[in-house]
Amino acid sequence: MSLNIVSLLPAVIDIAQQAGAIVMRHYAAPIHAETKANKIDLVTAADKEAELYIVAALKALAPTHHIVGEEGGAQGASLAEAEYLWFVDPIDGTTNFASKIPHFCTSIALTEKNRHPLLAVIYDPAKSELFTATKGGGTWMNGRPVHVTESMHLIDAVISSGFPTDRATNPDNNLREWAAIVPLIRGERRLGSAALDLAYVAAGRLDGFWEAGINPWDVMAGILLIEEAGGCVTDYAGEALPQRQDKGGYVATNGKIHSAFLEALTAARQG
Ligand code: IPD
Ligand code: CA
Q1: Closest CA to 50 of 97, 88, 95
Q2: Is the pTM here over 0.90, yes or no?
């Protein structure tokens, strides 16, 4: 039986907004952060409580689907049997959240088994901004259609990026790329939430974004938002479907600056 994606959207929006309410309740109180893989990789009680809520709600909504959550890993129906997958990041931008910087979001995406995204919901609870897309249905922000920017040249572009949490020990830590790209563009940003960076490219606020070593729950919703808003997402080599890897390198732009950006990035990585 084929899935009616559009009819699922209101329920997923409600789940993301309920999760946002959980996150903002924690945000209003003192926040204690624990560490995960290293001393700068954080998790808080809010990440855990919001993910438990989202996963329970998705299981009730779609019991035959597989769910991948940042904090809880593989959940729901088994991957082998499920035709559809959900990717859930309860808080993208946990470092901002723990520092009380109001820039973080909940990101939920539904994909086909081959990881082609079908439905995307990103909710920023501190600004009450909701970004949604369904395949073929365009990208919407708070109920209005949005599109990528018209910038044609890198020197007119505002581009964001991020650095891996293992940057102290990993030589592929984006510092070479950052140093090479910054002089070529109008503005550089490190906003601290890859999912919102992608939503901002889709909404025409940023012209582009790049980052390596990214997890699928950080990007799966943002990829669909950008595709449906007229932009382009590839890996660092310009190949489509970077989300087939578990830790991928992503270049996301308005499409018009994509080749120039890839050229600059490749030169930076070789130089
Ligand atoms: C992180 C944010 C950050 C990006 C990191 C991600 P998290 O996600 O998206 O902007 O640079 O690569 O891990 O840990 O806050 O969910
Ligand atoms: Ca997270």
Answers
A1: 88
A2: yes
